[in-house]
Amino acid sequence: MKLIITYAQALSLVAVALAAPQTFQQAAGGTVPFPPQSQQPKALSFEQAVGLVSPAGGNIISSSQTPAQTNGGISTSAGCRRNIFRKWGTLSATEKGNFVGAIRCLTQRPPRGVWSGARSRYDELVWVHAQMTPRVHGLDLFLPWHRYYLFAFRTLLSQECGYNGAIPWWRETNNAGNIAASDIFSPQYFGSLPPATGGGGQCLNDGAFAGLTSRINNQCVSRGEVKSESNQVSVQNENLCQQASSFPQHRACVESTNHARMHRGIGPTMANAAMSPSDPVFFLHHSYVDWQWKRWQNAASSRWTTISGCADFNSPCTPLRRKTVLTSLGLIKNMRLGKFLDTEGNRLCYTYDEF
């Protein structure tokens, strides 16, 4: 049964979320080390990324060059734009607080049996990503699966917490060089982003998620900015990935540049590829990743209905197709990839405020 809350109740929920962080179990100690690099998203320099999208770099992704699949000529030119996802900075304080409060609500909703170790629906959401990490990172399933995962996240916000408010995304390059100053990382919303010290980060101790713990490894959710990583998130990388002529090139470029750099730059929790959704800022970050793919798709209408690349690491790999099944291990129902190619199709029906 869908839980419906009134606007007044939503405001009350936000007040509770921001005023009572002590309800989370506090993890022992205040400092968490960064995970080893083998557990972090793979990051490439700009020069290395150029090789992915240039003709000379074709061999890097040659295993992903499988035939494109079409949708049989169905037109998507009309487009469903019922939901316009807006940049975080354009939201009012009330809208920002409502969104944060809805995520907080999800951390307090009971689990539904997806994972026996969960204490909340949010724990199950994180567990699914941790389990799927080896199957959806470092190959062409990365972008479609994470679009599906964001859909699962929004579905849970609606079904579990009755949230029907604004869905924000973070244009990270707008904060390049000083991301900690964004009000995303403030005690009013997602909590502070301190600098990394001594190879570690600090447990969240302010904001709506102070004291939040990842049930998978029983570590506190922690942050510690590594500026040598976060400072490499750039418009230059965005534009480079936009120039890719094939989907595998675009995916490899997006995953290995701004995406990986911001994960590693915010860590330690975000720097752990499997555990990263334990930090709720993950969902703002991956909405930005999805925006990059949508921008690339909008450059040619054929990209709304076609896909190519590898669905696994087999040799030869299983081709990525519209009929490829996307799974969240029971969190929401399995769906075919073709439903998630066109964000303005009937299934998703959204776009971004810059388009």
UniProtKB/TrEMBL annotation:
Tyrosinase copper-binding domain ranges (all copies): 279-290
Alphabetical list of Pfam families matching this protein: Tyrosinase
GO molecular function: metal ion binding; oxidoreductase activity
SUPFAM superfamilies: Di-copper centre-containing domain
Entry keyword set: Copper, Metal-binding, Signal
Kinase found in the keyword field: no
Keyword Nucleus annotated: no
Stretch forming the signal peptide: 1-19
Name of the protein: Tyrosinase copper-binding domain-containing protein
Organism placement in taxonomy: Eukaryota, Fungi, Dikarya, Ascomycota, Pezizomycotina
